[in-house]
Amino acid sequence: MLTFDLHFHANIHRMPTRSKALRLRKIRRHLRQCGPDFLASTEHSYKKPLEAYQRLSEATADLRTTVIPGVEAVSSEGIDIIFLFDDEAGLRRGLGEVRTFGWSVRDVARIAAETGALTIVPHPFHLGRTSAGNILSRRAYLRLLAMSDYVEIHNGSALTFDSQLTGCGAGQFFCKTQHKLDLTLDLPLADRGEGLGWAVSSDAHYPGEQFIVGSTDAFMAPGEPVLDFLRRRIRFAPHALVQPPTEHSVNSLHLLRSLQGVLKEAMVKQCLRTSGRARAAALALALSCSMFPSV
Question: Is the pTM of this model over 0.70?
Answer without folding.
Answer: yes
